[in-house]
Specification:
pyridoxal phosphate; alpha/beta; 39% helix; DNA-binding; eight-stranded mixed sheet; transcription
Amino acid sequence: MTLYETLAQTFIDDIISERLPTGSRLPALRKLAKQQSISLTTAGKAYAYLEDRGWIYARPQAGYFVANRSKKTAFPALSNQSLVPRDPSLFAPQQGYDAAVTGFAPLGTSLLAPELLPETDLTRTIKRVTQRASQSMFSYPESQGAASLRDALSEHFRSQHFAFNPEELVITNSCLESVRIALESVSKPNDTIAVCSPCFSGLLDLLSTLQRQIIEIPVTHEGIDLSLLEACFAEQKVSAALLSTTHINPLGITLPTEQKQAIAKLAAQYQMPVIEDDVYFELGHDKAQPLPAKYWDKEGYILWCSSISKTLAPGLRLGWCLPGRYFDRFYQQHHSTSMGVNSLVQDCIAEFLLCGDYRRHLNALRPILQSQMHQYRQFLAEHLPDSAQISAPQGGLVLWLRVPNLDTNALAEQASQQGIDIRRGSCFSTHPDYNDCFRINCGWPLHYVQAGNSPILQLRTLCSLISER
């Protein structure tokens, strides 16, 4: 065992024995190095070791703190594992996916607070590009997307060891539009699609609109049920699969590398199109970026979809897809339904990527998100009943919570009357298994204040409502 691992184990022992309780502040790096007579490098490695394993977290400009590990993160899986298709349109209208909450409601929509976005840098880029824009605004955009943006995205992801050619990419108006076009390219109305369960409510809405049936594949903290997914493929129960693999909404988990490899292998083995919705791909808390399942797709059966909506600016409505062997179908469907994407927006994002501002933004954002997530978990652990379960995601923007026997449909209605927006568990499935679960967004700093309200005030009210039930 190395010196830094030995030091890290000392902290772990202190945390387990509660000599260092949750929320305790750890010594600053320089102080730790001096106390232990070690180098700053060794001290930094010890903290990095603890942080990677979830024992501590960094709070920007404040230091390192003991993370909350007291709550279980194992949630119940979908109990109904039959391969009988279900119609999401029979459920979507009744669940109210878009809560009618007005005012400042930071806990509902999965979204970053504006103050966490590089407004100044992005505005500067937009002004610079606009000033020199000429003919690009006075002609229709390329249907595949501007070559400059495709080149910039290819270079950006290549630096993360996920390489593809710009010619393989199609630019769209959002990740959700990429998913829609992908579904229309590989399936038709009344076809059945395999989806994760729980599944992001927006995808269920989309599938309902497109008149697709679904079979839900259970996902737990351990990953996706690969045997059930393979059964769907082998028995030709589905025409395609629509899966999230990294920082999955709402659970927040990332599928193990072995499972991503297995999905790519199954897709090739059964010649089954798999649409990979990877919109949270770049919002990991660790410096090491996980790779998508598309990375292991050598036969082109995975259609990889993502965007900047969760990382940079949802209002710009810009996404992309790597359609693989379905490129021609995807391109033709995109061309016939949208005629391309705003040229000026594409030019601005291309420049923002190439000048390095996007990479710097992500690097600065990750520790902030990690800190916020820990603060939300800590507050909830202290104010919810002991039976409550709180997810412990390593990325993304949301927490998934379960309070056994809690009617979260009734809770959501009561919270809405208080101006609080949450996503009830029933929004994420056509089955009743998640009716005592709910999802909250952690994209706003806990103590952010707007119009006299803040996430922490809304959480306090929400916890009170739960305690009263």
